[in-house]
Amino acid sequence: MTQPNEVPVSDLRCLCDPSLFDFETTADIPPLDQVIGQERAVRAITFGLEMKSAGYHIFVTGPEGTGKTTIVQEIVGKAARQLSTPPDWCMVNNFKDAYRPRAIAVSPGQATRFAKSLGRLVADLKIRLPKEFQADPFRQKVVEIQERYGEEKQSYFDQLDRSAGEKQLKVEKIPSGYQTIPMNGDAPYSQEEFEKLPDKDQRAIEKTVQTFQEEIQTALREVNRINHTQQKEIQQLANELALFVVRNRLDLIRENYPDQPEILAFLDEIQADMVENVALFLPRQANGDDENETPANGNGLSLNRYRVNVLEDRSGMQGAPVVFEPNPTYANVFGHIDKKAFMGTLVTDFTMVQAGALLQANGGFLILEVETVLAHPQVWESLKRALQNKMLCIEDMAQDMGLGTASLRPAPLPLDVKVILLGGYEPFQVLQNYDAKFNKIFRVRADFDYEVVRTDETIRLYAQFIARVCKNEGLLPFSANGVAAVVEYGEKAIDSQRKLSLRFGAVTGVIKEADYWARKEAADRVTEAHVFKAFSEYRFRYNLYEEKIHESYVDGTIMIDVAGEAVGQVNALAVYQIGEIAFGRPSRITAETFMGRPGIVNIERESKLSGKSHDKGVLILSGYLGRTFARRYPLSLAISLTFEQSYSGIDGDSASSTELYAILSSLSGLPIRQGIAVTGSVNQKGQIQAIGGVNQKIEGFFDVCQSKGLTGDQGVMIPSANVKNLMLKKSVIDAVAANRFRIWQVSTVEAGIEILTGQSAGTPDSHGNYPPETVYGKVQQQLTTYLKQSLKLKKQYASKK
């Protein structure tokens, strides 16, 4: 029969009744197609996605394992399918400044087609233009021009020859120009003949030569003018021919983009540049004899200038893009500019510009994990700048940091993207408090919960979630009792009888492992036995440290009494966290009280093994003792508290009530039952407050008691507020049902000390005095004794002075 303050067996665990489900296996129900228990987050995300004003980017917070990444991708994907597909992007040459290439937008799915059409254009012109320039009509026109201008040039040379003959001179062409030679009849003067002439004749001949040289220079200038005019006319003829060929070929491409002015303008630029640099399409001349026939390919340019670099092609895409970038380095997010080695240096051009996640998501949505973004400070600062300015710059990071050689600086692209950051609470708070721009850019916060209220509806949704996992992962279907076992796991995972865990990462792990054990048995479905097997095997894989600690209790290395009575000694409960595994184990707390300087000596704090929360809990004890026993006279009491055999740090206030019970026992002289372990924090009013890890603490003490032998008088005393958190394992529940183990609930210190000592705590009279036979009466008597003795000693000391 349940005694007062004992928790009934029915309250030790919330069971899920398989009869709640109207299916034989999860294969009979539709998979989950909605989000469980995240209405707040879903509404916030939906608002952020639909809000078109600047600055309404989204920051999604929530614990790990709640499925926020998957849920966000599903919600964003659904919203993206309702939008139109944004344009493709191509990087093209800037014919005015090759170091500032620019990006142009192309209708969705047409970027690759556009690039190929220009590639075919260049290949075609490399064949057609040489043929046109080598064809008879063009060559004949060139010959006509050359003959026409040749006659005009020849007339100047004929005139020079006549003038030279009249002046007894002869003109010869030499590599460095034209040479004038004086004539002696029909033969030129030799050096000896010239020197024999009188000085007067020599000076006359030299003057005649000098004057004639000026005539030559005048004639050469005229010839050069004629050559220039001739070349210009040939070039004009070549340009007209090139324009005719190029324009006809480009018109075929223009027909495909009648409503895209940016492409049409670019094609006009290509046309003008191809006509100007038509020599790029012609074979190089073997020598310079015919340099005036056709323009020479000697300007160092390349046909790559007419290529199209497809940065993003959305062929086959339905709706707007959704991009998740798991590794947000600067290059992966903003793009980069490749380089290649050439003649001992690094070179690049616009064809080596590569797009990043921002451009891929342009016109849609980009999902990033904030922790990995903040690991690259340059990415975070550049991302904020891009979102504020709505412009994307693809830059060479090495050059931006003052490293490397000169590189390209592509013109900025217009940016229209919605960014969704995924992260925890800590980075969100840091950014919100210390980054002035953060709140202006990420105005929407979507907060994911880790639990949901347990109702028949949420339990049925849990079953549909299991059906979804089974379908997506190709797992065996779960039976009704198998689903019930998973639901109970969802309760135990958050230590609540009224809530279900929304950490679906861990739940999915249980589902997969249960499927493994079912297949090992060649079963056609997963039952509760397979789910329990998955629990136990998972525990076994990780609990080596737990077992080692447990052995220390069994072999007496750690001293714990689970039977008998002791004064000033209570079993507290602590939780150990090893990775994902948490387990509870008892720890002995002892208290010694004596006359001395008023106050509590916390040995853990003095030895610097105590955390702030534990220190606070100990300090609260002074408030309760003063409130209860020092209303009319001061306490003349010193207290020493410690966790026995504790050599590492201690924190948390869940043992504060345990420490108080040890103090009350030491003062009253009443022994405490050692078969009872205690947990719970206390406030200055003496109320017992809820603590965490209640299931692990109970199960940990039960394991120790079971190993040392259950007597029926053992158990755990917990705060009443924690009863709703009980999700104990089957062995504990069976022991309680068989009256071999007990769970008590208390809400006050008085109720707790009565269970531990078996005596009434006592109720004070109007003067604050407690009945002498009660626990508090005995405490009061001891405090009075200490006070009287203290006063006596003071008088003796004063009389000696």
TrEMBL record:
InterPro entries: AAA_32, Lon-like_helical, Lon_proteolytic, Lon_Prtase, LonB_AAA-LID, P-loop_NTPase, Ribosomal_Su5_D2-typ_SF, Ribsml_uS5_D2-typ_fold_subgr
UniProt-recorded Gene Ontology molecular function terms: ATP binding; ATP-dependent peptidase activity; serine-type endopeptidase activity
Catalysis performed (reactions): Hydrolysis of proteins in presence of ATP
EC class: hydrolase
Gene3D superfamilies: 1.10.8.60, 3.30.230.10, P-loop containing nucleotide triphosphate hydrolases
Domain of life: Bacteria
EC number annotated for this UniProt entry: 3.4.21.53
Residues of the active site: 654, 697
Coiled coil: 202-240
GO biological process: protein catabolic process; proteolysis
Pfam family, any one: LonB_AAA-LID
Ranges where the Lon proteolytic domain occurs: 564-759
Keyword terms, alphabetized: Coiled coil, Hydrolase, Protease, Serine protease
Family label: Belongs to the peptidase S16 family.
PANTHER family: ATP DEPENDENT LON PROTEASE FAMILY MEMBER
Name assigned to this protein: endopeptidase La
Source organism per UniProt: Desulfosarcina ovata subsp. ovata
Taxonomic placement: Bacteria, Pseudomonadati, Thermodesulfobacteriota, Desulfobacteria, Desulfobacterales
